[in-house]
Amino acid sequence: MDIQAVRRSYARWAPIYDLTFGRVTGAGRTRAVDVLNRLGGKVLELGVGTGLALPHYRPGVEVTGVDASAEMLEKAREKVAEMGLTHVRELREMDARKLDFPTASFDHVAAMHIMSVVPDPEQVMSEVARVLRPGGSLLVVNHFARDEGALSVMERAIAPLADLIGWHSDFHRATILDAPGFTLVEETALPPFGMMTFLRLRRD
Ligand SMILES: C[S@@+](CC[C@H](N)C(=O)[O-])C[C@H]1O[C@@H](n2cnc3c(N)ncnc32)[C@H](O)[C@@H]1O
Predict the structure, then answer these.
(1) Atom of ligand 1 nearest to the CA of 97
(2) What values do phi and psi take at 95, rounded to 5?
(3) Which of 2, 31, 7 is nearest to 191 (CA)?
(4) Quick one: pLDDT at residue 162?
(5) Within 13 Å, how many C-alpha atoms sit on residue 142's CB side?
(6) pLDDT, tens only, 41-68
(7) What one-character DSSP code corresponds to residue 162?
C-alpha cells in the first residue's frame, strides 16, 4: 500500500471511522493514554486519525498529532474545536516517514493502529528514534500477525486486500521489536480477544 492508497483509503474511512473501527478499538487508546497521562510531557501521536484519543489526555500533557490523511485530520480538528482541547498543541498533515520535527523533540510517541498501515514501517521507526529523546517511551497499539491457527490463515488470505481495507493484516511484531535504538518494556494483549497488542518500548 503506497501513501496515495493510504490517503484514498482513509478518505473513505473518515466519515464512518468513529462508529466502526474506532468503536471497537478503544481499549488500546485507553491503555496508551493512561500511561501517557502518568508520564506527562510532550507527546507526539503518529497517525492521530480522527483524534479519538485526544479528549482523554489530562491537561498538562502537550499533544502534537500528525496524519497523512486530510480527511481524518479534519475530524480531529472538529473534536479539538468542539471540545476546547487546549492541551492539543497542533495537528499537522505530515508523512510519518519524514517527520518535520527536530531531533529529540518529544518525550513520548504514541503509534496507535498505524504501524500496519504505513507504507514503510522501518523508516517510521527510524524517524521515531530520531524525534524521541533518550529515555522516552514509544507506545504502540497494533494487531500483529499470528504464526499459526485459523486466524493466521485468515490474516494471510486477506493480506492482498490492504489497499481496500486500509491496513496490512499480516504485519509482524518483529518490525517493531527489531528496530534499532529501543528496548521492550511491556507487552500486553488487549481486549476483546487479544486482537490488539500494547507495546511499550524505551528509547535507549
Ligand atoms: C487505523 S487509523 C488509526 C487512527 C488513530 N491512531 C486511532 O487509533 O484511531 C490509521 C491512521 O494512520 C494514518 N497514516 C497511515 N500512513 C501514514 C503515514 N505515512 N503518515 C502519517 N499518517 C499515516 C492514516 O491516515 C490513518 O488516519
Answers:
(1) 19
(2) -85, 125
(3) 31
(4) 62
(5) 29
(6) 999 999 999 999 999 999 999 999 999 9
(7) H
What grid cell was written down for 59? 491537561
| Residue 160 CB coordination number (10 Å) | 10
Q: How far away, in angstroms, is 146 Cα from ligand 1 center?
A: 22
Give me the CATH number covering residue 173: 3.40.50.150
Domain housing 166 = 3-203
| Angle, in degrees to the nearest 10, between helices 3-13 and 70-83 | 50
For ligand 1, which residues put their CB under 6 angstroms from it? 3, 6, 10, 22, 29, 47-49, 52, 66-69, 72, 95-97, 112-114, 117-118
Q: If you average pLDDT over residues 1-18, what whole number do you get?
A: 94
Give the predicted TM-score (pTM) of the model: 0.94
User: Does pLDDT of 148 surpass 80?
Assistant: no
Cell of 13: 474511512
Domains identified in the chain, total number: 1
pLDDT on residue 193: 85
- Testing ligand 1's pocket by substitution, the residue of 8, 75, 88, 114 carrying the most ligand atoms inside 8 A of its CB is 114
pLDDT at res. 159: 64
Instruction: Copy the grid coordinates of residue 56.
Output: 482523554
